[in-house]
Structures are given as C-alpha cells and as structure tokens.
Amino acid sequence: MQTKNPIRLVLASASPARRKLLQAAGIEPEVLVSGVDESIVTSESAEELCLQLARLKAQAVVGRLLPISDPQVLVLGCDSVLAFDGEILGKPADPADATRRWERMRGRSGVLHTGHCLIEVAGECRVEAVASTTVHFADVTDEEIAAYVGTGEPLAVAGAFTIDGLGGAFVERIEGDPGTVVGLSLPLLRGLLAELDLSVTDLWSRVAPGGQAVEPLT
Predict the structure, then answer these.
(1) What is the Cα–Cα distance from 113 to 10, expressed in whole angstroms?
(2) What is the pTM of this model?
(3) Which of helix, strand or coil describes residue 133?
(4) How far is the C-alpha of 11 from the C-alpha of 34, rounded, in Å?
(5) Where do the domains of the chain lie?
(6) Could you tell me the CA-to-CA distances from 184 to 33, 77, 133, 142, 156 in Å, in that order?
(7) What is the spatial distance between Cα 177 and Cα 181, in angstroms, rounded to a whole number?
(8) Is 79 a known active-site residue?
(9) What is the CATH number of domain 8-203?
(10) Catalytic residue, candidates 70, 79, 142, 177
C-alpha cells in the first residue's frame, strides 16, 4: 500500500552508507551535512562520545533549517566509534594509522558504538540512544592489510573497517545489529520514532515490498 505524505527526514550525515541503508528500508532522506568539527569533542566513554557527536550534528542541521514552516520534519544525526583495547577509535589519521590498527585488531574483537539523535524540529522534541555491536575480526595477513589500506576505504570509516564494502571479507562475525556497524540501526530508529508517537511506516516514501513493484535504488 502506498503511503501518503511521508514525513520529511533530513539526514545530518555525508555517509553514503547511511543513506543507502535508509533507502533500502523505503525511506528517502534529504542529506544536509552538519559541518561539525569532530575533533573538538572528547570523552572517556565511547558511548557518550558517539552520542555527543550525533547530537551536535543533528542540532547543527536543525539550526540551518530554522525558521521552518513544515510541521513534519525530522533531523537524524548519527556517529560511530570503535571501542578496542580500552581505546576509542574513530577514523584513522592516515594509512599508517589504519595499518597499525588492523595489525592490532586482526584475530580479535571490539565493540562498534553508533549514537543516534532524532529531533522533531517543529515540536523541538529530541530523543537519542546508542546501539552497540560486537565485531569479531578475521586473522588477516599483512598482505591483506596492505591491500585493504591501499584501497582507501579504511580511512573513511570509524574503526578503519566497514562490513558493507571491501572490509566485509575481514569480519568473521558480529553480535548485534549489522546496521549499527554500517552506521545506523533501523530497529533503534524505529524505537526513537515510537518515543515521538510516530511509526517507521510514516517515513516510507515508496511502495512497500510484498508483491508490488519497488523503485530501484540509485
């Protein structure tokens, strides 16, 4: 059944992976990059750090949208970090940093935390939460690390890896929601929407699967 007048969701992130994840779930977000300088935020807690950054990103985008006349606008900010060996790891500084990380991580495990902050702009309501997933890394070889770092993919993602790209071959298994590792947990988003008395179906912008034709993703 075709939904009517889907709520406008603005994604405060430049991440193509987050956008594709939403698109695959029938949600076509608008993208407005926050411009937040992530280096200015520090915390000893990985969960608190990713939530602070998600909140700052969402609030920055809300500030750019105001004043607004549309009563049905939501802004979603997300941020991910990896907790490993007592350290908080965001994106690597350079290829050498990414290589050192993989030499430490191979054959071991870490916890990927993704903070989510959802703001209902008109009502000035904010809900937020963190999703956490344990990631078990494969015992990759030096040659595999060098090849992977050489692609540039690890430099663009928290923890120097992703499961929805080349790095997926180097993750043996996860414990938790795969979307958390990609950068956005759909089940957690559904829960946040419920706190605002909304349903995830309110965001659907295309025909739901189940026999009907679904628009191809671009």
Answers:
(1) 22
(2) 0.90
(3) strand
(4) 9
(5) 8-203
(6) 16, 9, 11, 30, 16
(7) 7
(8) yes
(9) 3.90.950.10
(10) 79
